[in-house]
Design goal:
Blueprint: H1 8-15, H2 22-41, H3 43-59, H4 71-84, H5 87-100, H6 104-107, H7 113-132, H8 135-145, H9 151-158, H10 162-180
Helix pairs in contact: 2-3, 2-4, 3-4, 4-9, 5-7, 7-10, 8-10, 9-10
Length: about 200
């Protein structure tokens, strides 16, 4: 995804002389980062982690290299590092979801009780499988499925080669498919059908 009109990279450059310009970057991207973090750590942690993400981004904005990475991957990479500091909380939330089948963030995405029940039934085995993934595999999978980043953007966000993104995503998909069985449960809102897509790049 390219920068929106008004250029994110230009905003970062301008904020070096006029720090208040960075607020526009927050306004553009904080809602998506917040939703992503909420899905991974729960709503209670999302405010803090989103704030930490943008505070870190502001502090290191002079190191942003628009030739190397887009702003979205850069921000999601910072968020991934912040989430990594909360790994225990994420695994606990996934284990709770595996036990109860209740995903409070996905609730707002389902319009009917029937859809919600089907989603919760699909969520249980997938949440357990997500909790068992390595942190690296989980970062790659969820940046792809929930943050809607492509392979190259994930590589830029995490500072890893695209080949590593591919192998981690393939390994995570295999594990989730095994957990979901052959009934297609992986198509629920927990991971969404995007885990079955090919390379979006």
């Amino acid at each position: 995804m390219t920068d929106p009109a008004g250029g994110d990279a230009e905003l970062i450059a301008a904020s070096l002389e006029e720090p208040e310009r960075f607020a526009a970057l927050f306004d553009r991207h904080a809602p998506a980062i917040h939703q992503y973090v909420a899905r991974r750590l729960g709503r209670d942690a999302a405010d803090d982690v989103t704030a930490e993400t943008f505070l870190t981004a502001f502090r290191i904005r002079d190191r942003f290299d628009p030739a190397r990475a887009g702003v979205r991957p850069w921000l999601y990479g910072i968020a991934a590092k912040q989430i990594g500091r909360h790994r225990r909380r994420e695994v606990q939330a996934l284990k709770l979801l595996a036990r109860t089948g209740h995903d409070p963030v996905a609730d707002s995405w389902t319009d009917s009780a029937d859809d919600r029940l089907a989603a919760e039934a699909a969520a249980r085995p997938l949440a357990g499988a997500l909790a068992r993934l390595s942190a690296g595999d989980r970062h790659v999978l969820l940046l792809f499925a929930w943050a809607d980043l492509g392979y190259q953007e994930i590589a830029e966000a995490l500072g890893i080669p695209v080949g590593t993104v591919r192998s981690r995503l393939n390994r995570a998909r295999r594990k989730l498919r095994t957990a979901a069985g052959s009934d297609g449960a992986a198509d629920g809102p927990l991971i969404e059908a995007r885990i079955h897509e090919g390379d979006p790049a």
